Amino acid sequence: MQMLVAMICLFAALPAAKAQAEWVDLFPGRTLEAWEVVGDGLWHILPEGIVVGQRERRAAKHQSWLYTKQNYREYDLRFEYWLRSGENSGVSIRDTSRGRWSQGEQHDPERTPSHIGYEIQILGMPSAKYGTGSLYLFESAKPGQERFHGWNRMEIEVRDELIRVRLNGAVVMEHPGDPARPKEGPIGFQLHDMHTVLMLKNVEIREAAR
Fold first, then answer.
1. pLDDT of residue 126
2. How far apart are CA 205 and CA 119, in angstroms?
3. Which helix (H) or strand (E) holds 4?
């Protein structure tokens, strides 16, 4: 009996576990109010909740981005995407410049989001060095998990010393990140060039307990 009482007291003294945060829709109300467009991207949300991004082809130059107005540090991000074959997109994390030098008169290829924060590739080219799920310029993703010409599910785990990507349920890339780069910033979706058409759905975030 005394042992039982001692065990109860021990467990009662342990700090309470932090509650797991819930998943939050990043397009609440099926609007773009939580986002800002950088460049000439045209973004719309269809009645069924699918987010469509494309370029104004007559004026398209360099990159265009859709960024969250809010910054995030440690979190899990999940979404489904569809990209036309041969086209180029990506997910920006921790880019404190918010794409400032990715387009327009200030364009600087050495200061695009992948050079300041990180870019996780979404690429409709199966033979590319940095295929879908890769941490561009840092770590190539394991091939063979992407469904071309169809919807895919990507999950990105972002921690201070870890970036992990799952594609259709399989881990395809892990990297500790660069200690010299920012630990916090917005989340962005890229329209790389005038040909890019990207569709997204079920875009959700769950912030890590700290």
1. 86
2. 17
3. helix 2-13
Beta bridge partners of 165: 156, 173
Residue located via tokens 């082809």 = 57
Mind giving me the DSSP string for 125-137? -TT-TT-TT-BTT
Domains of the chain: residue spans and CATH = 25-207 (2.60.120.560)
CB atoms within 10 A of CB 121: 25
Q: How far apart are CA 32 and CA 120, in angstroms?
A: 22
Query: Alpha-carbon distance 91 to 123, whole Å?
Result: 11
3-state secondary structure of 18: coil
93-130: pLDDT as tens digits: 999 999 999 988 889 999 999 999 999 999 999 889 99
Residue 91 pairs in a beta bridge with 120, 189
Chain position carrying tokens 């895919």: 152
- Length in residues, the chain: 210
The DSSP string of 95-123 is -TTTTTTSSGGG--TTSSHHHHSEEEEEE
Task: State mean pLDDT over 33-56.
Answer: 95
